[in-house]
Amino acid sequence: QCNALSSSPSGFFSFSAKDMKHRLGFLLQKSDSCDYSSSQGKKEKISSSQRLSQEEVRKWAESLENLIHHDRGLAAFRAFLKSEYSEENIEFWVSCEEYKKTKSPAKLSPKARKIYDEFISVQATKEVNLDSCTREKTSHNMLEPTLSCFDEAQRKIFTLMEKDSYRRFLKSPYYLDLVSPPGAGCGPENCKRNHTHTLDCNSNIISQCA
């Protein structure tokens, strides 16, 4: 059985079991039921039909658009950004996407203010990295919020993620562990790379050789 943690010289991807549970729990489809064999004392893998297909995962490497417009791709990328302590970028992008779906004009102003205060203002708790011109323009848009008032800021953050964190994500265990071909060997030298994450009845991550 492989270890669920992967490490590097800098300890960049080293997490506690508790952290790994939160970071990787999204990787598999939710299972309505989970069989447990008391005689063998092992957690059973969920069926392959519930897993991500290799085709789905490989499409994530084609573009950031493909990745973050796929529910589990977005979840994987979000978990990776959390490991880098830069999750505010994807959270801002998601908030903007949700904001643009607002149907009631009366809700635009309070929703816009909430996003602005959380991600853009000087005292923002999750301030994103925007140039002064974009920040000033977005601030001006708050006077009369519209569905497009965050468009420029959202594009800037998307581009930032696309050129930086997205490229690192594709080289990280968060992606490589999912794109490894089925049946790949799992010897001592590559055990940490070639493994699949399974989900037990208590939503705990169990790492097993492919």
UniProtKB/TrEMBL annotation:
The keyword Phosphoprotein applies. Keywords: Lipoprotein, Palmitate, Phosphoprotein, Signal transduction inhibitor. GO terms for biological process: negative regulation of signal transduction. Inhibits signal transduction by increasing the GTPase activity of G protein alpha subunits thereby driving them into their inactive GDP-bound form. Activity on G(z)-alpha is inhibited by phosphorylation of the G-protein. Activity on G(z)-alpha and G(i)-alpha-1 is inhibited by palmitoylation of the G-protein. It comes from Mohoua ochrocephala. It holds the Pfam family RGS. InterPro entries: RGS (IPR016137), RGS_RGS4 (IPR034953), RGS_sf (IPR036305), RGS_subdom1/3 (IPR024066), RGS_subdomain_2 (IPR044926). This is Regulator of G-protein signaling 4. Residues 63-179 form the RGS domain. SMART domains: RGS. The keyword ATP-binding does not apply. PROSITE patterns: RGS (PS50132). It comes from the Eukaryota.
